[in-house]
Specification:
14% strand; alpha/beta; 320 residues; 11 helices; binds NADP nicotinamide-adenine-dinucleotide phosphate; two-stranded parallel ribbon; Rossmann fold; binds 2-acetamido-2-deoxy-beta-D-glucopyranose
């Protein structure tokens, strides 16, 4: 309830920021010039705004995208307003294990450190289809692709954190939609079951997986003594390309709930806050909404489920 009230009024929460805060506001005065960041899906929507603001604060930003025209376009837009910005684009298709491996090879050959990884790319409500590797598309793109990507980048992130003494940060774009998954949470035994596919619940499932996964990784990194935090965020409701599979439905929904919607500058705020803000030093395995920590669903906090998802994901990635 408090959530709705602060969302509508834009009143700040304990962090000093709220739903009306923009990505620029929450990173005001922060110097990120020693940091390198990868933003998946950084060619459009919240990801593009995240890339722009990270670059504005001085970070070297790699836009990882499958649509290279859109990615180059996003890069040009950033450079227009910020000619000193350091931005590169690299091809990445998260529904292909092969593309993910190629991306990591290409990134590694650039010989860059990696401080920040923003797992932002996503698809929503698409009709039933399988990824190149034969996994239901929303689970494959939103969760499994990022699972593999993150694992492949982790060595570099650990090395960077160790060599520089600067805390690494992984930010996962989840969603409030994680509350609306399948009843059992994750359908381990029927992940590809077309007959029981429900486009909305499959999205919820993938976004639940994002939180479970961030939490499990956070626990593993703490055990390893790695100076890397992992947190999940719900960015708010923002009209972006994400709505392409449900455009009219979302327009009607937006009309009915218009006071709850944000613009893209506000939509990137929670991501940028969690990626850069000094007040979050050492904070890991948490879920944020409108720049403030919140408790996610009961399922999302289930450690046994998180562990099971990790093993399940590892199996899928290794057989592909
Ligand atoms: N907008 C909201 O209200 C909202 C609410 C909650 C959570 N989120 C989350 O926020 C994140 C960003 O969404 P957005 O609203 O900014 O949507 P968006 O504008 O559609 O951005 C998503 C980006 O992900 C990319 N992408 C999709 N599939 C990909 C793949 N297989 N490989 C590489 N890139 C891929 C898209 O590229 P293409 O154009 O090539 O598809 C696009 O650039 C998503 O994770 C979403 O779940 C958004
Ligand atoms: C960036 O790194 C240099 C060299 O290690 C250091 O002197 C400087 O203080 C760092 N800047 C910030 C903002 O941390
Ligand atoms: C979130 O975090 C985990 C662990 O890093 C990752 O593998 C998972 O798939 C990520 N998903 C997204 C889209 O944020
Ligand atoms: C981890 O990073 C933080 C912030 O950059 C730093 O202050 C801290 O000393 C680091 N901790 C370790 C164990 O290296």
């Amino acid at each position: 309830m408090v959530g709705i009230l602060t969302l509508v009024t834009g009143w700040p929460g304990p962090s000093g920021f709220g739903s009306a805060s923009t990505a620029e506001m929450v990173t005001d005065g922060i110097d990120a010039s020693n940091l390198t960041a990868i933003v998946t899906g950084g060619a459009s929507g919240i990801g593009a705004e995240t890339a722009r603001v990270l670059a504005l604060r001085g970070a070297y930003v790699i836009i990882a995208a499958r649509n290279m025209d859109a990615a180059n376009n996003a890069k040009q837009l950033i450079l227009q307003s910020n000619p000193a910005g350091r931005v590169d684009v690299l091809k990445l298709d998260l529904c292909s294990f092969k593309s993910i491996r190629t991306f990591v090879d290409n990134f590694n050959s650039m010989d860059l450190p990696l401080n920040i990884l923003i797992n932002n790319a996503g698809v929503m409500f698409c009709p039933y289809q399988l990824s190149e590797d034969g996994v239901e598309m929303q689970f494959a793109t939103n969760h499994l692709g990022h699972f593999l990507l993150t694992n492949l980048l982790l060595d570099n992130m650990k090395r960077t954190a160790k060599d520089t003494g600067i805390e690494g940060r992984i930010v996962n774009l989840s969603s409030i939609a994680h509350l609306h998954s399948y009843e059992e949470g994750i359908r381990f035994d029927s992940i590809n079951d077309e007959a029981r596919y429900h486009d909305k619940r499959a999205y919820g499932q993938s976004k639940l997986a994002n939180i479970l996964h961030a939490n499990e990784l956070s626990r593993r990194l703490q055990k390893d003594g790695a100076n890397i935090t992992v947190n999940s965020v719900h960015p708010g409701l923002i009209m972006t390309n994400l709505m392409r599979h449900s455009f009219y439905l979302m327009k009607v929904f937006q009309f009915l709930t218009y006071i709850c919607w944000k613009n893209v500058a506000q939509g990137a705020a929670t991501t940028c806050f969690v990626a850069l803000h000094p007040s979050l030093k050492g904070v890991t395995g948490k879920y944020f909404l409108d720049c403030n920590e919140m408790a996610p669903s009961r399922l999302a906090r289930d450690e046994t489920l998180a562990k099971r998802l990790w093993d399940f994901s590892e199996q899928l990635v290794n057989q592909g």
